[in-house]
């Protein structure tokens, strides 16, 4: 398969917002975060929500969308991937799974299906373990937004074979949790290696999506004994992506659906703006044109032709 020009890599991080400058409860200040400090010379906060080094841009995107309550993954991800105000449509923030009435929109308007239909070049880089396929084959259908989107749109679900062949990544980056929790014997890879693999994959498709969900679990304080390890792995992964992306040929968008990880004094989501970072040919235009999560899909389509 030939390398494509002006392709797009979207890295979706569940539950990361821009929070207060707080060295006790904001882990980006408490532990430091190389991605922010080395790429931008600073750490984003509510006092400084926009950072740039001239070619890479970090900025806030509103996830509340004019609806009261705490943003949730179901409606937040539908808004992000489909470019519409799902909480307003539903009448509330809802999650973690898709709200029933949003599923038709997920099927026909999501960004993966847009690139599949227009360019025949759309790829979801995550792999799923055997237990996932056993679950859906049993007839049960309570799935995440991305899984529902791919299933309804005919986007391929990658398997462990794709991980072994370097065509996909596990959702936690390194493969280690698949080995420990699911009994696989995969080679454990470094976050830097995973990032380079994802960049190679994204060279082959007009649009590639990768989803990382453990950030939201960390924000809910579910993985306290693994926090520093997983936090450091995510940092190395993101830093390598930004450091090694071919910024002349590929637009990289790192984005989220709501705040959570940036505020560890509570176990819930926050109303803080979601974190967004762009690099590559369309980075500046997207950063200047996007103010909320419903606008990300439209900006990608407009500026990444």
The helix-and-strand class reads: alpha/beta
Indicate the overall shape. Answer: globular
What's the number of domains?
Answer: 1
**What is the count of β-strands?**
7
CATH 4th-level superfamily: Alkaline Phosphatase, subunit A
Number of helices: 15
Question: What level of helicity do the residues show?
Answer: 40-55%
User: What is the string of SSEs from the N terminus onward?
Assistant: EHHEEHHHHEHHHHHEHHEEHH
Strand content: 5-15%
CATH domain class: Alpha Beta
Say what the CATH topology is: Alkaline Phosphatase, subunit A
At CATH level 2, the architecture is 3-Layer(aba) Sandwich
Strand order of the largest sheet: 2-3-7-6-1-5-4
Biggest pleated-sheet summary: 7 strands, mixed
Question: Terminal Cα separation, in Å?
Answer: 19 Å
Which features would summarize this protein structure in a list?
single chain, alpha/beta, 305 residues, 15 helices, globular, Alkaline Phosphatase, subunit A, seven-stranded mixed sheet
Q: Topology of this structure?
A:
Blueprint: E1 7-13, H1 27-30, H2 34-40, E2 51-52, E3 56-61, H3 73-82, H4 86-90, H5 103-109, H6 111-119, E4 122-124, H7 130-137, H8 145-153, H9 160-164, H10 176-182, H11 191-202, E5 207-212, H12 214-219, H13 227-244, E6 250-256, E7 274-279, H14 283-289, H15 296-303
Parallel strand pairs: 1-5, 1-6, 4-5
Antiparallel strand pairs: 2-3, 3-7, 6-7
Helix pairs in contact: 2-13, 5-8, 11-13
């Amino acid at each position: 398969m030939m390398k494509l020009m002006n392709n797009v890599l979207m890295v979706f991080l569940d539950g990361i917002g821009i929070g207060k400058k707080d060295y006790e409860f904001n882990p980006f200040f408490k532990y430091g975060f190389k991605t922010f400090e080395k790429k931008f010379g600073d750490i984003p906060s509510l006092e400084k929500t926009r950072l740039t080094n001239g070619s890479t841009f970090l900025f806030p995107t509103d996830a509340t969308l004019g609806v009261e309550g705490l943003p949730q993954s179901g409606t937040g991800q539908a808004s992000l991937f489909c470019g519409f105000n799902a909480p307003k449509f539903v009448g509330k923030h809802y999650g973690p799974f898709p709200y029933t009435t949003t599923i038709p929109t997920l099927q026909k308007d999501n960004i993966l299906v847009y690139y599949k239909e227009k360019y025949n070049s759309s790829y979801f880089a995550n792999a799923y373990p055997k237990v996932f396929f056993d679950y859906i084959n049993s007839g049960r259908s309570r799935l995440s937004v991305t899984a529902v989107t791919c299933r309804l749109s005919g986007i391929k679900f990658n398997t462990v074979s794709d991980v072994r062949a370097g065509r996909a990544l596990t959702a936690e980056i390194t493969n280690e949790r698949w080995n420990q929790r699911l009994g696989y014997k995969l080679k454990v890879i470094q976050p830097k290696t995973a990032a380079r693999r994802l960049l190679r994959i994204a060279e082959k498709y007009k649009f590639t999506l990768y989803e990382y969900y453990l950030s939201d679990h960390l924000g809910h304080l579910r993985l306290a004994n693994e926090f520093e390890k997983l936090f450091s792995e995510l940092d190395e992964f993101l830093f390598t992506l930004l450091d090694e992306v071919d910024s002349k040929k590929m637009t990289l968008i790192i984005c989220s659906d709501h705040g959570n990880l940036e505020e560890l004094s509570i176990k819930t989501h926050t109303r803080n703006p979601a974190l967004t970072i762009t690099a590559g040919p369309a980075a500046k235009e997207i950063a200047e044109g996007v103010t909320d999560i419903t606008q990300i899909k439209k900006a990608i389509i407009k500026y990444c032709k």
